[in-house]
User: What shape does this take?
Amino acid sequence: MSQEINNPGYEIPPEMRGQVAITTLDKIYNWGRRSSIWPMFFGLACCAIEMIVTAMNRFDMARFGMEIMRASPRQADLMIISGTVTKKMVPQIVRLYNQMPEPKYVLAMGSCASGGGPFKEGYNVVSGIDVYLPVDVYVAGCPPTPQALLNGFIALQKLIDAQSIKTVRWYRREPVPPLPVPILGPDIMDPRRFNEIKDYTEKKLQAQHTAAQPEPDQSTAQDAG
Ligand code: SF4
Assistant: This one.
């Protein structure tokens, strides 16, 4: 461990190596977090099967300190979006994300979660979860193999290694507001786009109303003249 967290630039006498480490607060803080990320226990579609396989003994997420998948968002650090994201599921996914405490991360697993995948622009599927959640790591594939997911975990660990407690959002003075939960009506609606959707709908209704107005009867108008 001392090898892993020791900060380069500080020389430790040979006889003390193995017992003493000189490091920064950022480094030890990040080392602790990146080595004990608990993913949330939920899956969405076929990619979830690969995620489950990754947790089994052949690939073994325990090597990353990730073997404890939590069934409660309150105890999870990582949301793995493993599968097709339907419009019906998005409000629940965003609500669960909001219920996770900081620090928290999102990994989009597979082409469905990253951009809609083979169902892109289908009537019931969103074209990527990053429209609604801040995604930290994307894992390519349909489905990604367990090795690809492990590679995504390593990418996440590198991202955490580069963070500083001076700049991370959860240590800012102002509170982090929850993300707006999308509303599912005839279609999915992001509350952040409320005004844009309202303007568009009003213009559309106005155009329909104008088109439905009867044309003035020309012959009657001439007779009257
Ligand atoms: S990316 Fe492929 S394997 Fe994963 S959920 Fe979509 S269709 Fe299924």
